[in-house]
Amino acid sequence: MSDRLADSATGTAGIRIAVDAMGGDHGPGEIVPGALDYARQHPADQVILVGRPDAILAVAPTLPTNVSVVSAMQVVEMEEHPARTLVRKPDSSIVVATHLVRDGKADAVVTAGHTGAGMAAGTLFLGLLPGVDRPGLAVQMVRKGSPFVLIDIGANPDSTPEHLATYGRMGSIFAERVLGITNPRVALLSIGEEKGKGDKRIQRATELLDQSGLNFVGNVEGKDLTNDLADVVVTDAVAGNIVIKFFEGLSSFIFDLLRAEFRGGIRGKLAYLLLKPGVNRIRKVFDYETAGGSPLLGVKRTVIITHGRARRRMIVYALDVAARTARADVPGLIAESLRALPVVEDGRPA
Amino acid sequence: MSDRLADSATGTAGIRIAVDAMGGDHGPGEIVPGALDYARQHPADQVILVGRPDAILAVAPTLPTNVSVVSAMQVVEMEEHPARTLVRKPDSSIVVATHLVRDGKADAVVTAGHTGAGMAAGTLFLGLLPGVDRPGLAVQMVRKGSPFVLIDIGANPDSTPEHLATYGRMGSIFAERVLGITNPRVALLSIGEEKGKGDKRIQRATELLDQSGLNFVGNVEGKDLTNDLADVVVTDAVAGNIVIKFFEGLSSFIFDLLRAEFRGGIRGKLAYLLLKPGVNRIRKVFDYETAGGSPLLGVKRTVIITHGRARRRMIVYALDVAARTARADVPGLIAESLRALPVVEDGRPA
């Protein structure tokens, strides 16, 4: 952990990160300590905690010098309508934190709160980059060795082939600049590996990605998601969301079955003791906390949406991804990459 | 196993099952022994092995009296174009086997061969039921306790909301009549549980299922697929196919990690010995072979497509599902259920 966090501090410019201190299942109790950990480890960066000052100061009565508090008295509840709540709750922590970025007072926003509200705030208050029709929510997915980027996992339910092609471009830049993968392999998630397979959207997106100039390696199937075939896997919001949630459900299901066996009687307990180092190795492969959070790509600034269940340790990684994304100026690089595309007659990239 | 097979033999009428003896990764070497096992256990049923007689008789020089061989000299290769190959190879085992059903000489067809060719043969040669626009391929998916039905896993890439609603109806009849689930709970796979979530197709399909008269319990997420929330989960071909293949990939990935730990050194081996009964319990939960195969629902007769990797034991279960589906007359019940729907002006069910 220290290695990984250390090297994001090698950039020269300090990054100002606005943190929605109220969101998520655990609220300030986990988010504030995580943000403070990050601030202590990265003295050149600034952390701005956004939320109810009393709640924040209850957790952290004294703050490091690179941490400040900005007041936001309202809290978005999980069942609220995303876009509507932004209007109804202008003094909510997600709105105020995103406004700090919009107004140039912060470089990135991190939230563990209502995903829909976070995406809506990013899209509406920060705006989309020229050439981007819809943002895409990316996530780093676990596999043996290094993770890969899956995009979109829920920002844009009715995506077009053109959106999918742009996701490939945005995901590739994130993988290269934030994860440090040279010339990332981009693939499209489909029913089969052959190019004619899939629905019409996938077939057209395959053609667009083929012509994109990206390192497009073709289509992959669901069974290949755990294999090292691609660094960026493009899919639509519905399939992407089903994949990450099924991943959570199925891996918990298997590990729960195992846990029950390890706890069942003296044989199980003894087996667990013997296998503990191995269990820890497997646990490490499935350590999604180090992914930190999901970048909302296609908006003009850095927005990181982390898991509602994120605890202190994951929050540190979420701020780290935010700092890396902002420091590399991923939004600027995406804009540049889109500008470089040939323009067709209606003035939009081909 | 014997219990389950036994009770499908309680029906009175003998079922005639045409088996594509040449398909699949293992060909006649596994399919023929599996089909013969079934025939011996179900003397009232007839098994018709379709393929190259020399290849079949090389595996089984003597046949039980309720088994016959029908010659088909061509074999469909995995990389061939599904529909085209049916025209190009009229004497292939899948074509001849499906023709036996079409011509009233068999009640069901079972194939472990090229899935696309099996679906195309079923659709083109047997025809779709009145009121069915597109067939749906269903599968029994593993979860703790009883399995659930997932439909569609790849028959119809560009499904409409109306197709999804019909899948709910067809899957419900299959679950009730073949799996013995009373009043099956039908759910739609989506991004969130709330009814407004998902893409436009899902939103409209939610409305249609709400009005369908089925026991529609709403939308489920990917993480719920391992939970006992529904007996039939409806989704489109792309998401469904990604789910089953990701299931294969992810569960193999986890079990491979575990296997490596169990094999790594004396501690691992000892732990395995201690945990062996537990490992077998878990293996049993993941025993997809008992599902037998996927019914292609919406065609006029019974078509069961089993796994290309199916071995002898799974082939027995595939024939069992075929017999149950044909004996219950699932196609007839689907037709009846669709006929009972109110007809709108264009003459098609509302």
Topology, please?
Two copies of one chain form a homodimer.
Chain A: H1 2-7, E1 16-20, H2 28-41, E2 46-51, H3 53-59, E3 67-71, H4 82-88, H5 93-102, E4 108-111, H6 115-126, E5 136-141, E6 148-151, H7 161-177, E7 186-189, H8 200-210, E8 216-220, E9 232-234, H9 237-263, H10 265-285, E10 294-297, E11 302-305, H11 312-327, H12 330-339
Parallel strand pairs in A: 1-2, 1-4, 2-3, 4-11, 6-9, 7-8, 7-9
Antiparallel strand pairs in A: 5-6, 5-10, 10-11
Q: What does it look like?
A:
2 copies of one chain form a homodimer. The first copy, chain A, is α/β, with parallel strands linked by helices. Helix content of chain A is about 45%, strand content about 15%. Chain A has a domain of about 180 residues: Isopropylmalate Dehydrogenase, CATH 3.40.718.10. Chain A has 12 helices and 11 strands. Chain A has an 11-stranded mixed beta sheet, sandwiched between helices. In chain A, helix 4 packs across helix 6, helix 5 runs parallel beside helix 6 and helix 7 packs across helix 8. The N terminus of chain A is likely disordered. Chains A and B meet through helix 9 and helix 10 of A and helix 9 and helix 10 of B.
Defining key terms:
14% strand, alpha/beta, 11-stranded mixed β-sheet, homodimer, Isopropylmalate Dehydrogenase, 350 residues
Quick structural overview:
The structure is a homodimer of 350-residue chains. Chain A has 350 residues and is an alpha/beta fold.
